[in-house]
Design goal:
Length: 328
């Protein structure tokens, strides 16, 4: 029992120190656990930590030595400090160091910059101004910002998903220089986990990540509606089939396509016209069948005859109509 408790304690202590600083695994194990061989390949503690990292990054548990090395590298534990990089744009540091000159030159030209962990560990003279820096997890956001602002792009740091040790080291340098860090991520489960991880490892604060921001985006999306998929996209499961065509001379049938309202070229709308297609009208249902005359006469005779007025109604056309209605 005590051995299991000690192993779990060491695993939690190891996970609390990850992502690492790009140091070798034995050095990391010595610093955290006072044992350079505590996280060697094949040990119980190493397997427990790797399975926890696989669950954290939503990947399969590593089975080979190369997969275990890749997972350790993703957590910031690697000998190679050149393959761990961070994507930036708009940073304009000062100083005579090579990193400061290169980053400033690229930013003035309106280009992005990839900084390696080795460059961030030994940048030379590097001073960041205390201006706000926005953090995003999607490289496409950074690309759109560069396309819109060019050389005037504000300072941006992209984590490219889960932040590695290079991202966290750069964010710590920016925070030490007094730059406010503002993080915005996706509102899905993975994006919220990434946001929580960044806030726990750096002094960053969430930017436009509140419940009211989410509801505002959701309301705007609902009001404008999602973009209509092109013709031929599969119909989602549970969606009723489209109504009958509006025009027999229209384009090919889109009966099993989204959205629910079968979008076709209705009468008065030419294919390729600037006006968008109109939703087809619901199919016209036939009128309900008429009640047989024998049933109508039976109902009228029953409504006129009450048990209080006559215990045994006299025979007549009404009773004969009821008999025919029951037979038919």
């Amino acid at each position: 029992m005590s051995t299991t408790r000690n192993t779990l304690t060491d695993a939690l202590r190891t996970l609390s120190e990850l992502p690492g600083r790009g140091e070798p695994l034995p050095v990391f194990a010595t610093r955290v656990l006072n044992d350079s061989h505590a996280l060697d390949d094949g040990t119980r503690l190493s397997g427990l930590v790797l399975r926890a990292l696989a669950a954290l990054y939503d990947t399969a548990a590593p089975e080979s030595a190369s997969e275990r090395r890749a997972l350790w590298a993703r957590a910031g534990i690697a000998d190679d400090a050149l393959s761990t990089t961070v994507l930036t744009a708009g940073l304009r540091p000062t100083g005579d160091g090579p990193v400061a000159r290169a980053v400033t030159t690229y930013s003035r030209a309106g280009h992005a910059t990839h900084l390696t962990l080795a460059q961030l560990r030994t940048p030379g003279e590097l001073h960041f101004p205390p201006t706000a820096v926005h953090i995003t997890e999607n490289p496409s956001i950074l690309a759109l910002a560069l396309r819109r602002f060019g050389p005037a792009c504000p300072p941006l740091v992209c984590t490219s998903g889960w932040p590695n040790s290079a991202v966290l080291l750069l964010l710590r340098h920016l925070a030490e220089a007094g730059a406010p860090l503002r993080h915005h991520g996706d509102f899905d489960g993975e994006g919220l986990r990434i946001t929580a991880h960044v806030l726990a490892k750096t002094p960053a604060t969430p930017w436009r990540m509140s419940a009211s921001d989410y509801l505002t985006c959701l309301t705007a999306h609902t009001r404008t509606g999602p973009a209509r998929p092109p013709a031929g996209s599969p119909r989602p499961r549970g969606t009723p089939p489209c109504p009958r065509p509006c025009s027999p001379t229209g384009p090919p049938s889109w009966r099993n396509t989204w959205p629910k309202t079968c979008w076709r070229t209705c009468p008065g709308t030419r294919t390729g016209a600037s006006r968008p297609p109109e939703p087809c009208a619901a199919p016209t249902l036939p009128p309900p069948p008429r009640t047989p005359s024998a049933v109508r006469r039976c109902r009228a005779w029953t409504s006129r005859t009450s048990p209080r007025r006559s215990a045994s109604p006299s025979p007549g056309p009404g009773r004969r109509a009821c008999r025919r209605a029951r037979r038919g």
